[in-house]
Design a protein that fits this description.
660 residues, alpha+beta, 6-stranded antiparallel barrel, 26% helix, DUF748 domain-containing protein
């Protein structure tokens, strides 16, 4: 919003500066100056059908300054603009080759009214101005008028400009904005080398019952480098013409703070010590930016949009996502707080939030550092998290079709279409994360994952690696007593998982689930699942249950290489039971052999013997797990609650072992 208002002001500066051409002869008399002013105003009338008037014109020959009073330019129509200037002073003007120059241009009480927006600037000073003699041919607006303004702005240069204060109001939503201490440094061909502002304050009153305050935004110092006024004017043109072009090379906004009442989050506040933008590129919007006013007004009044208005808003938002691109956006020391009704307060913070490379709903990289979220007893934190190659182009294209009324607003996408809407993620990394809730705590050293594939709709190969995942040992599982006997109070896992899915055959292959610890054991698990419909990722309710119940088990292979973990577990168990190591190991092994035979039947005698050899002497163990006829993943999950006896109803196991 700030950039747009600055551009409107800059456009008006260019518009009125065209009048400087009337004072090309520094020693001209007042009558001659008035005649030239009238000629310039008439040129504006002819070119744009605007109504242009002025008051008295005078020339101070001593200071070589031309004064024009009560200038007004009004564009006809409901969407027209009104510009008024109480007094314009032009110091040492000259004219050469259809260009006008002046040592200093000073505006007093500049007022711009466009629709519901009114901009007021008590004073503006422009130093060492140089620009086209014809000036702007119409007041600021949209479409061809704004595009013409952009072309003229491309010919403007100055050594600097300043406006101590600018106030902006919107009569429709009651928004007030105040920009203080605006300064432009060198301007060449409409590109501002550096612009600064001391502060920006925005207030929008709330129309919700029980909400005493509405939206409040404030900033500290703002600094912009390489701002292209022509590019920003073309962005506001609202005709959708042209390609993206550089608009802002770099921008820094300090001490950003936002506060607003919301239905879901209660009183929400957010802020950042520093917000940075780099390499911003834009093209002209298809619709003028004032389209958002309708949504803002309805939201404030708690009134719903009509279907046609909703589609209009969708088209504006999707077009904005297409029109803009940037190289980098970063926020340092960012905070977010919310008080949802009936729930614990939420507090989140991050030392750095950084987004790299955005265009057409696709991001190259998102980085989060020093992040933490608290809600009640729940605390989630991460030293660093990264997401790479995020592409939501499918979702954007679908939203555009809704906006064009090719798809009804109430239409639910088919499962095969829904898969195309999911944002695709190339890679995700997490370093040093933690989740605590009361006495329960989970910590992880690192998580790395990636997805790729040949299928356009869905990545069909994915992998994840987890390092140093620690969490309390489960207390309510069938294997919990064994963990307790082994002295395992916390699980410490480092593992890797790689899976692939063939959408045509609907076969999911676990290429490898690997756990490795040089002091405990190496574990490798691989296998397949059949009848895995990719639509499982998005199904809900009965359709999900139906598809999930069809997932069939296929052979699974397990390989374990002992590195001392078996003996360590027996030593801990013996100590806990007050027994000797040998006695405890033998008792446990004998019980395991007997139980395996009892569960799987007499045919499992050789497997029980192999398991006993492994438990007594370590070495290597291999288990081939074969599903019984018609065994499904859903059956396995249900039977697993019964422990080994339940699993034996769905699986046959063959075990072989080899000691070192």
């Amino acid at each position: 919003m700030t950039t747009r208002r600055l551009l409107i002001i800059a456009a008006c500066v260019v518009a009125v500066l065209g009048l400087a051409g009337v004072a090309a002869l520094p020693r001209a008399a007042d009558w001659y100056a008035a005649r030239q002013v009238d000629k310039a105003l008439n040129d504006i009338r002819v070119r744009s059908t605007a109504v242009a008037n002025r008051g008295a014109v005078s020339v101070d020959l001593g200071s070589r300054t031309v004064f024009v009073n009560a200038i007004s330019v009004e564009t006809p129509g409901d969407a027209g603009a009104k510009v008024s200037i109480d007094r314009l002073a032009i110091v040492r003007p000259t004219s050469l080759d259809e260009r006008v120059t002046a040592d200093l241009i000073r505006f007093e009480n500049l007022v711009i009214a466009i629709g519901n927006e009114t901009v007021r600037v008590p004073t503006i000073e422009v130093r060492d101005y140089s620009g086209p003699a014809q000036g702007l041919v119409s007041a600021p607006g949209g479409g061809d008028a704004t595009r013409t303004q952009a072309d003229i702005a491309a010919g403007v240069s100055a050594s600097g400009a300043s406006a101590p204060v600018i106030t902006m109001t919107n009569a429709r939503v009651g928004a007030d904005r105040t920009l203080a201490g605006l300064t432009f440094e060198r301007v060449d061909s409409g590109v501002v080398s550096r612009a600064t502002a001391d502060s920006l304050d925005v207030t929008v009153p709330s129309r919700r019952d029980g909400a005493p305050k509405g939206l409040q935004v404030s900033t500290g110092r703002q600094t912009f480098h390489g701002v292209s006024l022509p590019a920003l004017l073309r962005f506001l043109a609202g005709d959708g013409a042209g390609e993206r072009e550089p608009a802002i090379d770099r921008a820094v906004i300090e001490q950003l703070a936002v506060r607003s009442p919301t239905k879901l989050g209660g009183d929400v506040s957010a802020g950042a010590d520093r917000l940075e933008l780099e390499k911003v590129g834009i093209r002209a919007l298809l619709h003028r930016a004032v389209t958002l006013e309708l949504a803002q007004d309805r939201a404030q009044r708690d009134e719903p949009l009509t279907p046609a208005e909703t589609r209009q808003q969708i088209m504006f938002l999707t077009d904005s996502l297409r029109a803009a691109a940037f190289g980098r956006v970063a926020a340092t020391e960012a905070v977010l707080e919310a008080s949802p009704p009936g729930r614990d307060r939420i507090a989140a913070s991050a030392a750095l939030i950084e987004v790299i490379g955005y265009a057409d709903a696709a991001l190259e990289r998102v980085t989060l550092r020093g992040a933490q979220t608290r809600q009640g007893e729940r605390d989630v934190s991460a030293d660093e998290a990264n997401l790479e190659r995020i592409d939501a182009g499918g979702l954007l294209a679908y939203a555009e079709r809704i906006g064009r009324d090719e798809i009804l607003l109430t239409t639910t996408p088919l499962p095969e279409d829904m898969l195309k809407l999911f944002p695709r993620l190339g890679r995700a990394n997490l370093k040093t994360g933690a989740w605590t809730e009361g006495d329960w705590a989970l910590k992880v050293g690192e998580i790395r994952s990636g997805a790729r594939g040949d299928a356009e709709e869905l990545p069909n190969r994915a992998g994840v690696r987890v390092t140093n995942l620690t969490m309390p040992a489960p207390q309510d599982r069938w294997y919990s007593p064994y963990l307790k006997d082994a002295g395992v109070e916390r699980l410490n896992l480092t593992f890797r998982l790689s899976v692939s899915l063939d959408p045509s055959s609907q076969v999911l292959t676990v290429n490898g689930l690997d756990y490795s610890d040089p002091e405990i054991a190496d574990v490798h698990l691989e296998g397949t699942l059949a009848n895995v419909d990719p639509a499982l990722a998005i199904e809900t309710g009965g359709e999900f249950v139906d598809k999930f119940s069809r997932v069939a088990l296929r052979p699974i292979a397990l390989r374990v290489t002992d590195h001392g973990g078996v003996a360590a577990a027996f030593a801990a168990g013996a100590k806990a039971r007050g027994s000797t190591f040998d006695d405890f190991r033998e008792s446990f092994t004998t019980d395991a052999e007997t139980r395996l035979t009892a569960v799987l039947g007499p045919t499992a005698q050789s497997s029980a013997t192999a398991l006993g050899l492994f438990l007594r002497g370590g070495g290597k163990l291999e288990a081939n797990i074969l599903p019984r006829a018609d065994a499904t993943l859903l059956n396995l999950i249900q039977l697993a609650r019964l422990g080994p006896e339940g699993l034996a109803q769905a699986l046959d196991v063959t075990i072989t072992s080899r000691t070192n």
